[in-house]
Design goal:
CATH class: Alpha Beta
Bound molecules: adenosine monophosphate
Radius of gyration: 18 Å
Structural class: alpha+beta
Number of domains: 1
Shape: elongated
Largest sheet: 4 strands, mixed
CATH architecture: Roll
CATH topology: CBS-domain
Helix content: 40-55%
CATH superfamily: CBS-domain
Strand content: 15-25%
Strand order of the largest sheet: 1-2-3-4
Order of helices and strands: HEHEEHEHEEH
C-alpha cells in the first residue's frame, strides 16, 4: 500500500501547522483541542521547518518545569524531521517510524507539505488490508 492511499482514506483535510515562535502553551492547547499528538512547524504552511510533539513538551516539563510553557517551541521542536512522499510504501515508513521511535511523518511533494501520516494511520490501513486478504483467501478456500 502506498502513502497516497492512506491519505485518501483519511480524507484530504489540510494539515494543521504551527509557526516557529509560537508559545508552547498555545501548541499544547491546539494539540488538546484537535486531539492530535504532533504538529508540523511551518512558517508558510508549505515548507516543513520542524515537528513538535506532545513528547517534546512532556520532556521539557520534566527537565525544566512548567515554566517551559511560556517559552516558544523553537528550541523544543525537532528540526529537519524525516519526511516521506505519496509514493512511499506504507511498510517502509512503518519500519522507519518504528526504528526512529516517532509516530508522525509529514508527506512532502516538490518541497511542499501535502499531508501527514501517523503510525496509527499506517497500522489501521494495514489491518484493513489484512482483513480483506483474509476474506479473499477464505472465499477462495470455500470455493466462491
Ligand atoms: P512522536 O512519537 O511522533 O510524538 O515524537 C517523538 C519524538 O520524535 C519527538 O521528539 C518528535 O519531535 C520527534 N519526531 C516526530 N516526528 C518525527 C519525524 N518525522 N522525524 C524525526 N523526528 C520526529
Amino acid at each position: 500500500m502506498l502513502v497516497q492511499q492512506i491519505l485518501k482514506a483519511k480524507g484530504d483535510g489540510k494539515v494543521v501547522t504551527v509557526k516557529p515562535g509560537t508559545k508552547v502553551s498555545e501548541v499544547a492547547q491546539t494539540l488538546a483541542e484537535r486531539r492530535i499528538g504532533g504538529l508540523v512547524v511551518s512558517n508558510d504552511g508549505e515548507t516543513v521547518d520542524g515537528i513538535i510533539s506532545e513528547r517534546d513538551i512532556v520532556r521539557s516539563m520534566a527537565l525544566r518545569g512548567a515554566n517551559c510553557l511560556t517559552e516558544t517551541i523553537d528550541e523544543m521542536m525537532t528540526r529537519n524531521p524525516v519526511c516521506c512522499t505519496r509514493q512511499d510504501k506504507s511498510d517502509a515508513i512503518l519500519a522507519r517510524m518504528t526504528d526512529g521511535r516517532f509516530r508522525h511523518m509529514p508527506v512532502v511533494e516538490d518541497g511542499k507539505l501535502v499531508g501527514i501520516v501517523t503510525i496509527g494511520d499506517v497500522v489501521k490501513a494495514r489491518l484493513e488490508e489484512l482483513a480483506m486478504e483474509k476474506d479473499a483467501l477464505e472465499g477462495m478456500i470455500a470455493g466462491y
